[in-house]
Amino acid sequence: MICFHEHVFVFLVLVAELYLHAFTETKLVVDTSRGETLHIKLDITFPALACSILSVDAMDISGGQHLDVKHDIIKNRLDEHGNVIESRPDGIGATKAADDCCNSCEDVRERYRKKSWSLSNPDLIDQCKREGFLQKVKDKEGEGCNIYVSLEVNRVAGKFHFAPGKSFPQSNAHLLYFLAFQKDSFNLSHKINRLAFGDYCPGVVNPLDSAQWTQKQPSGMYQYDKGWFSV
């Protein structure tokens, strides 16, 4: 009788093992969504870098580039205490005149960037001198900047930069030029308030939300590596 019970028990254990055992299956699938785009939303604060000299660039391995992004971006000037200086943010959906003329200092700077020319002294340009561009930038020294960016990018590996100065491509390289009077060093300390990829999903925690970095040297660079996977 005991032997019979033992056989029944062993049989039940074997059946349970059969149903609880997990099988691993490996598959290699071609990603057919390469041509699709990905929506990125980023809210970041630079407490010691003025909005007037801060540019945003995005690029990817397929060759797509968004240099010195001005569309779908909001810049809020901050004082030394982190308070918003003005209620009207800079650079919301900036558009260009239909005649494509260089009527303003910003138009000239953009034209120089597209030509991959360096504009080190805007005071030599009539439009910039008339607008008092250099003095306006100097007056904003010591300010901070909060940036909200909404970008539609190719769904491939890529990167985006926040840097002081203007960017332009040259000989397959990504270069920055600075204004003649700008300081030799910048404080790139920052806090990422929010970084989200794709459509909003309730309950999802973004790994870089609230991440911050404090620059302790006169100059510096900080890089984040992040992978994104669709499920």
From TrEMBL:
Segments forming domain Endoplasmic reticulum vesicle transporter C-terminal: 93-225
Primary site of residence: membrane
UniProtKB keywords: Membrane, Signal, Transmembrane, Transmembrane helix
Highest taxon of the lineage: Eukaryota
Domain Endoplasmic reticulum vesicle transporter N-terminal: 9-66
Compartment(s) where it occurs, according to its Swiss-Prot or TrEMBL record: Membrane
Name of the protein in question: Detected protein of confused Function
Organism: Hibiscus syriacus
